[in-house]
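We close this part of the discussion by returning to an individual protein. Part of our work consisted of pairing the sequence of a single chain with a tokenised description of its backbone. The amino acid sequence and the backbone structure tokens for this protein are reproduced below.
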Amino acid sequence: MSEEAVKPKKAKKRRWYHNFKDAFVMVWKAEPIWGSVILAMPVLGTAIGVLIGVTQGYGVYGGFLGFFTGLIIGLFLLTNRVKKVSYAQIDGKPGAAMAVLDQIKRGWNISQEPVQVNPRTQDMVFRMVGKPGIVLIGEGNPNRLERLVNDEKKRVQRVVPKVPITVVKVGNGDGQVPLLKLQSHVRRLKKHLSAAEVHAVSNRLNSLGGVKLPIPKGIDPMRARPDRKGQRGR
């Protein structure tokens, strides 16, 4: 067998337009109507631009201007729908809140692992420290979360008793914040601390460590193998 036959093929370089294609396909599959609207925007913009341009004696120029205007509007709609479709796909799954909050790291110290968790029900609490103070993000049944939130409040208050604590419960019920609005809700919280105070509070809370999950008897965590299919989303 020749060396050329054995030599593996090089993976195709991913271009910027591949990202737009993948985003559009995702929206098209989840929301065909919006996919059609996005696809039609450049055509509609061109038609309107030509009509307006003809009345002014600049039909070709108006067509170009209308095309690019429609393209920009289409890209804006695509970005908006991709965000909503992406959030809808993870809504209700454990750790969904962290996937959203992980995008607003600037100015925040966010626990990457839950600080409180119920292994049986998968209710969990994440902790953030920023200028609004300490923010506890709860995922799961709002009634069951009360105990987890109160336990974390007690832990935190022993270390930083004077720092304000805000509780945010993620969900679609009364008194909860929908996943799609979680980022904007957190950003609108009233600020109480300076950047230096945020750093100091974060350092003190880091000494608390994370929550230790109970390990069922008979399982050796050093020999446990990850579910490869699960990691690939299968």
Remarks:
- Strands lie at 109-110, 116-118, 123-130, 133-139, 165-170.
